[in-house]
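This part of the workshop introduces the protein records we will be handling. An example says more than a description, so a record of this kind follows.
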Amino acid sequence: MDAGTATLREADHLIHRLLDRLALKEGVFACTHLFRTDERRGTTVSLAVPGPDADAVWQQLVDLLPKGAGLALADRAHGPDDAVDTARLAAAAPPASGRAVAYPGVAHLTGTVTVADLLDRTAVERLVVLGAPDAELPPDSEVLTQDHVRPEWRDGVLTLALVPAVGGRLAPFEVPNPTPCCADHA
């Protein structure tokens, strides 16, 4: 879907608002996708819903999304052509690419968790430490989640990039509230 969100943060908020309104079961994946066309750039959202729920969710999304939003699902489309075109790109992206905001097990990733728990209790399949991509992580290594864990699809594998943190721990590379570039000298 393309609802006109420009930033990852806006798309994250859209995903959470939609998931709060859609009564979906476990197993949903919601991802963000950056796009750029000749006319505009922004962030689209893909929503993977298991089983027969897709038809019901389609109609709910048509009703919930703002005027001008584009939706695409297989041969169905709703909204302006340019928004539908970017929505189709988002729909085709996972599992090759995309940044996961909602995925099975994400609710378990609060506070500090171990590597073993992260891998066992969520859809995340691979952990990569920046600067040491082949590092073996002991299962009892601690990950400081900051309640914000956004893995990415990389070649069909949901992968979380980590960085070293205080006290020999690890933390997700993406932080919840990044300081905008040039914020200190605007």
